[in-house]
Design brief:
The complex is a heterodimer of chains A (112) and B (113). Helices cover 0% and strands 54% of the residues of chain A. Chain A contains no helices and 11 strands. In chain A, the strands form 2 sheets. In chain A, strands 2, 4, 5, 6, 9, 10 and 11 form a 7-stranded mixed sheet that branches. A 4-stranded antiparallel sheet of chain A has the order 1-3-8-7, with no helix packed on it. In chain A, strand 5 (42-50) and strand 6 form a beta hairpin. Chain A is globular. With 113 residues, chain B is mainly β. Chain B has a single domain, classed as Immunoglobulins (Immunoglobulin-like, Sandwich). Chain B has strands at residues 10-14, 19-24, 32-38, 45-51, 56-58, 62-67, 72-77, 86-93, 102-103, 107-112. Classes of the chains: A mainly beta (112), B mainly beta (113).
Chain lengths: 112, 113
């Protein structure tokens, strides 16, 4: 079956703009998590959605938000982009009972 | 390729040797642990997991050891191959299933042919 799909793969945005990233989980997976990966901080948890509800949230400012649709697809949005938001954004999905997350290939965001 | 960590600890091993990658986890309440492999330009790929009621689990060419007393995990890779070159992360969470996966900083494995 198809894996976790993230679009777009690459993005270049200007400071102050906003961006929306998309994630399609594995079919049947109801939980979607988002992570930010940078060389300095490693993989940092952003938030997790399950059945359209945010279940957990990491320690990121309110500029970072997300949502999940009834088909389990998820989007995350970053408003008022800063240079420090440049990172690889990873999405992972899992079933409600399976703890093994499957990751997508990520979206590489560059803020200039 | 995309850099996943400029200042990661690096382990260099000769092709064919065994590799041991260590990880200290942070939360004594964690009871489920996963090792991931990340190659350049890709997302983390699941390798093997272990629950806290076990101290050892084996997969194909890989073994994970868990020492809860000192909060330590290790990943052993037998007969290391060039394709094993990647960054390896340990991750921990709680069995409730509602807590996020927390990742360690990662170790870069470099296989010398």
């Amino acid at each position: 079956k198809a894996g976790v799909t993230q679009t777009p793969r690459y993005l270049i945005k200007t400071r102050g703009q906003q961006v929306t990233l998309s994630c399609s989980p594995i079919s049947g997976h109801r939980s979607v998590s988002w992570y930010q990966q940078t060389p300095g901080q490693g993989l940092q948890f952003l938030f997790e959605y399950f059945s359209e509800t945010q279940r957990n949230k990491g320690n990121f400012p309110g500029r970072f938000s997300g949502r999940q649709f009834s088909n389990s697809r998820s989007e995350m949005n970053v408003s008022t982009l800063e240079l420090g938001d440049s990172a690889l954004y990873l999405c992972a999905s899992r079933t409600s009972s399976n703890y093994g997350y499957t990751f997508g290939s990520g979206t590489r965001l560059t803020v200039v | 390729g995309e850099s996943v960590g400029l200042h990661l600890p690096t382990l260099s091993v000769q092709e064919g040797d065994n590799s041991i990658i260590n990880c200290a986890y942070s939360n004594s309440a964690s009871d489920y642990f996963i090792w991931y492999k990340q190659e350049s330009g890709k997302g983390p790929q699941f390798i093997i997991d272990i629950r806290s009621n076990m101290d050892k689990r084996q997969g194909q060419r890989v073994t994970v050891l868990l020492n809860k007393t000192v909060k330590h995990l290790s990943l052993q890779i037998a007969a290391t191959q060039p394709g094993d070159s990647a960054v390896y992360f340990c991750a921990e969470t709680r069995n409730s299933g509602n807590t996020p996966l927390v990742f360690g900083k990662g170790t870069r494995l470099s296989v010398i042919a």
